[in-house]
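[job 4471] stage=fold_predict status=RUNNING
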Amino acid sequence: MTQLPNSNQRGGPPPIVYIALALGLAAGGYWFFRHRPALPRFSLPKLDIPAQIPTGLGQGTPDPGLTISRGDRRLFGDNPNQNLQQGIAAFKAGDYGTAVSQFTAARQALRTDPEALIYLNNARLGSQPALGIGVVVPIADSANVAREILRGVAQAQTEALQAGIPLRVLIADDGNDPARATAIAHTLIEDGSIIAVIGHGTSRTTLAAAPLYQQAKLPMIAPTSTTTELATIPRQGANFIFRVVPSDQFTGTALARYMLSTGKNKPVVFYNSQSSYSKSLLDVFSTTLGLEGGQVVKTVDLSQPNPGNELPRSGADALVLFPDSTTFEPAIAVVQANQGKLPVLAGDSFYRIETLQQAGFSLTGAVLAVPWHRQKALPQFIQAANQLWGADINWRTALSYDALQVIRSAQAAGQITAAMGVQGRSRLEQVLANPGFSSQGSTGKIIFLPSGDRNATVLLVKIKPGARSGAGFDFAPL
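[job 4471] inference complete, writing structure tokens
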């Protein structure tokens, strides 16, 4: 199977068995039973929604300074595909027949390109009414991460169109920049055709934009943002913020308990003090450790110069790494400075091919908590993904697929149509927030807690020598 230019480990089913940590973990169980009410029989409450679209909300004209496209501009500058460019020109001119032909050719030339498939699907819809879905990804910051997310969206959109459900996807690039993220959020809010947003690509941009979506009552489904801060965004009345990836509450707890089970209880933790994701993991990990017999003996900020110099005088018996995307390289330098002396644990920011390529030998035996793996996915999802892309997919693709599947299920349950305009947003929220709502995703049933967090599990994986990734090391059984 072809390998995608991925930011995580890629590969078809490796000989891996992951250990699922169920929500029977005390923190998970506490969270669940404290926050989740019993599931009543599913029914929709009566909506209190305006009879007309509020002033200022309509189809919306994107700010020309923002990189936003339904098919009328190319967002990935590293793709010189001429068929894609010709399809974009035809789409922009309203010549959807030619656009379909050109986007089809672009797909044939580069089968792994999700931008071409999304534009092809949009061109097939032409000018007919459709439910708009905004997808915000960090193209300018990490094109590979953006493509991983968009592949899941494209797959779910394709399946929806095949089932007769018209979903038109708008792609936006926030470049992992909070200022751009908020500007894009304003544009999506003003676009009355958009009934939901999938994104943003990182915790920092999601936290920047989420309060705007909440205030404007536009549902947002986060596929990859794990920070616990997302569940604390001020809400007045209904909640419009959801996510399909397990929060750091589960990840930090799982890592702390695993470490204690190995007899280690005095870790040094490296994190980024400027990252909500990184601080969130540190807080949960430290709290669980302290409550259950351990103690973080030292914390080191990866954003400061030469963090690895703190290792020799830490007095620790384990090394824990919670970098974000901006401090990945300093975290790798810490691993190399460790020289295999302390056992290593890490969050899902290390679940990427670069980890194996740059420090696989130094990380042999390291344990990571991750949100997804293909061996835990439904076989029909994996088969469909392999057939669609001709290559393997990773966790970001699976969870962004889940995000659009959630919207599709809620649309069906709420009988939401394009004719409802922004009223469809309120109807969508009513369905998503109903305790009886569930959706079928890439790993099975998706259920939301009242906080908007997913009731889910995390997995533990270990780095071992292996051939599947092509880097000489793989994420293997614990």
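[job 4471] summary: The first helix runs from residue 26 to 35.
[job 4471] exit 0
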